[in-house]
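Lecture 7 notes. Example A: sequence first, then its structure tokens.
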Amino acid sequence: MTEISLDCKDLPCPQPVLKCKDAIERNSPNRLEITVDNDAAKENVSRFMTVQGFTVKTRQEGRNHIITGTREDDGDCAECTVMNDTKIAATDKEKILVFIASDTIGSGDGTLGGNLMFNFLLTLKELDSDLWRIILVNGGVKLAISDNKCMAELARLEESGVSILVCGTCLEFFGLTDKRGVGAVTNMLDVVTSFQLATKTIQV
């Protein structure tokens, strides 16, 4: 049984996930323990390990989070709730990615820009099943906050099967980590991979 421990404290996104990925690919461990020191890294590493077939548990020690993952086989997880990249790439359906880096559209009036963004999200449902994923970064993460009127529309899209990913580093920067009301916390590895897998990309 292979066991690996990684100290990923003080590492910016997405380095904890990249170190985790490298350890899994090089050693295929049955038990992997990773120490991080922020909530975004905890969410990102936990989600990545789950997709890789690990049963994940977390505990807090002071300001640090200890993430422990265990698995009995080589990681071929038949019951993972999130499709891995290989399975996503193998599907032949259209995969439209929407990349949003602001909570408004345009650079004129902020209120107008906010209304335009709301109407844009409201209209995305017209893409139907071709709409695959929405990624929120920088000011775009504010759309996923519980007191933003756009959050409800994002939640409806998520319920319909659209993947919503919210930048963890951006949430921490704006002090909004605890206010996220929709989507999963993500990192730059997910962002880059999503651009690679998408058949079309819309940037707002």
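Example B, a different protein, same format:
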Amino acid sequence: MSDATLLLHLFHSFAKVMYQSIFIDLDDTVWAFAENARDTFQNMYEQYHFGQHFRSFAHFYALYEAENTRLWAAYGEGRITKDELNERRFSYPLRQVGAYDEAVVRAYSAQFFREIVYKRKVMPHVREALDYLASRYDLYILSNGFRELQERKMVSAGVDGYFKGIILSEDVGVHKPYPAIFQYALQVAGAEPASALMIGDSWENDVVGACRAGWQQVYYAWKGLPSSLPFQPTHVMTDWREVKSFL
């Protein structure tokens, strides 16, 4: 055995000892939320004839995305409720063009939730990565999403079988990046902070949250690496194929 092969073998052996449980974010880490949501909204836009109110679908979706990001931050901080989050994000684009109609908002938002759970797109190469990881580690989903959606999305995409459990912020009453949800996840998995690894695409929720909880972290920068980061996470990857190089 060459020196390089021996070092690689020792590295992988150390990783297996080091990590018992790997916690993975769902949306835009495993399940392609951005793409699936856009596809679903495109259907809603056409079905509800929103083209009469907006310059284009891109105009409608840009309004939605900006407000949705702001509202999710407020929801994560406990400043608005789940119902307020959903009502405001779906009504916002129509309010901005003077076309708000309560009945329309209720109808198209309800239909959005009915349809999106059947979308099947996942992040590139994630299935191969999950095949590899599930044979070596205990995998758990750790997400801020809603249970009535997350479980069904995973089943539709055919990724539910890789995971031993699904841990959601609704189970705890707090969201990532707050420490309580990471502590709860350890209890569920029967793991210690030193043997836990978090993989996710959100710098604040996944990387900073895991770091503060004493976990190792993998920043999944699928949109591309920023020019600089506030600190160096344990690992950084832009493609799921890279995971074999460090796990």
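Note on Example B: The beta strands are 21-24, 138-143, 165-168, 196-200, 216-220, 235-237. The chain has two domains: 3-32+122-245, 34-116.
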